[in-house]
Specification:
With 468 residues, the chain is mainly alpha-helical. The protein is built from 23 helices and no strands. Helix 5 packs parallel to helix 8, helix 6 crosses helix 23 and helix 8 packs antiparallel against helix 21. It comes from Hymenobacter cavernae.
Length: 468
């Protein structure tokens, strides 16, 4: 017998799920911040387009925070994530008819993966999985009205524009999904509609024009980022490619600002970008070197001699990023002398005492136990998905399961490539999305747990019989 509930009851369970996903912030005593948080808050107050990131999350802060409180910002993004997670439970665990069990599965996801530590941050990172989850629901297209499809596509587009890396990640996911669906005949089997994929692709690709248009509207240039050249060169510095380039090109005929530093370049991209005594700063900042850095990037990308180095580093960085799923990256104390402090003071001055009294700003957060649990959850998720997808149990799975696993899996891998190979290998950049793997496993185990146990028992008896 299916549980029937009205709209007020559904909203109550949704609010409860939202509270579950903001529990890390409640435990901390205030929404979590990173060194980048201040830039987003400042863009909300000034309407200035940051050089190195989109203005869209700043606009989200402005709209959801009402210029009064930053609590609402994290709550609204957690509420949006909660709705998507509950929709996934509804689609892939149909035997959970009562909302209690659906919310319980969301709570179990939060406990095993620590996703609340991302949804409770004043950062756009949580929109990377939010957009990917919406993308998956659109593509599987199960029991959705046109209004819901339109809402999901709007979430995809908005999430894509929240962070520069999302632009390329979503593009690779939707194109990769189309290729896989074509090769495995998902289109022919009607597991995915060709028209739905085409519409979603158009929406994703439109982000490459929509975000620059938004930036131009707010007084910035018609571009996604005015600092992309600096970050790409910084990544090439970390890869060692710039060392090779400078050794081959620095001489009397060339006067690159990097040449005097070729024997003392930083070891990592972060040091190159933010070191006040580094080559970028000494040259006048990323706006001063835009033409030179773009020239260097073009020369490297058009010279086949660099391709083996780029390919090797890209593969290594992607694989390294896939394993960097720890929590706590960037969540150090940000007190009086920090940009987040000054920004919170401007946006919500009456919350400053709560901000300063948070566990984060008292240096009392520890992620050791959580990270041990998270790594364990990922390993068990791989085992569970392997059993379900490579044994006769796969015949029991719903037709939409394969497209769902493909979308989420592509999202995890593409995010690792985009952030690892083109930006930085950081726990925060992969941890924000890697939790989707255990979530997918929990969905399938919740629906087929008894079949898994029965299959394991039968295999064990067969092995004992063969041994005897």
């Amino acid at each position: 017998m299916r549980f029937q509930s009205g709209l007020p009851t559904k909203l109550l369970w949704l609010l409860l799920s939202g509270l579950v996903l903001i529990s890390a912030g409640l435990y901390n005593g205030y929404p979590l911040v990173t060194p980048d948080t201040g830039t987003y808050i400042d863009s909300a107050l000034s309407f200035n387009v940051p050089d190195d990131r989109p203005i869209t999350y700043g606009l989200f802060i402005l709209v959801t925070g009402f210029k009064k409180t930053l609590w609402f910002v994290t709550f609204f993004q957690s509420l949006l994530l909660a709705w998507l997670l509950l929709r996934y439970v509804e689609v892939f665990v149909p035997r959970f008819t009562h909302p209690f069990w659906r919310v319980a599965l969301v709570a179990l996801t939060a406990w095993t993966t620590g996703v609340s530590w991302y949804s409770s941050q004043l950062m756009p990172d949580i929109f990377t999985p939010i957009g990917l989850l919406a993308l998956g629901l659109v593509l599987i297209r199960r029991q959705q009205s046109k209004i819901e499809v339109g809402l999901l596509l709007a979430i995809v587009l908005a999430s894509e524009m929240m962070h520069n890396s999302n632009m390329l990640t979503y593009t690779l996911v939707i194109l990769g999904f189309g290729g896989i669906a074509l090769a495995t005949r998902l289109f022919g089997k009607q597991l995915v509609r060709w028209t739905t994929w085409l519409l979603t692709t158009v929406v994703v690709l439109s982000g490459w024009l929509t975000l620059p248009a938004i930036h131009a509207h707010f007084g910035g240039e018609f571009t996604i980022s005015r600092a992309s050249h600096a970050f790409l060169v910084a990544r090439l510095v970390e890869a060692g490619v710039i060392d090779k380039f400078l050794n081959e090109n620095c001489g009397p005929a060339n006067s690159y600002t990097l040449c005097p530093f070729r024997d003392k370049l930083p070891n990592d991209a972060i040091g190159f970008i933010w070191d006040g005594n580094g080559p970028l700063s000494k040259a006048g900042g990323w706006n001063a070197v835009r033409e030179e850095y773009n020239l260097i990037i073009r020369q490297i990308l058009t010279s086949p001699s660099y391709y083996p180095y780029l390919l090797s580093d890209g593969i290594q960085s992607t694989l390294r990023q896939l394993t960097h799923i720890g929590h706590g990256d960037g969540l150090q104390p940000s007190r009086e002398d920090s940009n987040p402090y000054r920004s919170v003071q401007r946006f919500a001055p009456y919350e400053l005492k709560k901000y300063m009294n948070s566990l984060q700003n008292r240096g009392q957060l520890s992620f050791t136990t959580l990270n041990e649990r998270v790594y364990g959850a990922h390993l068990w998720a791989l085992v569970a998905l392997g059993v379900l997808l490579t044994t006769p149990l796969r015949l029991r799975l719903a037709p939409a399961t394969i497209p769902m696993v493909v979308v989420l899996g592509l999202g995890i891998v593409c995010n690792a490539f985009v952030t690892g190979a083109l930006a930085n290998v950081l726990d925060r950049l992969q941890g924000r999305i890697s939790w989707l793997l255990p979530f997918a496993a929990l969905l399938l185990v919740a629906e087929h747990g008894s079949a898994i146990v029965q299959y394991g028992y039968q295999r064990m008896k067969q092995m004992q019989k063969e041994a005897n």
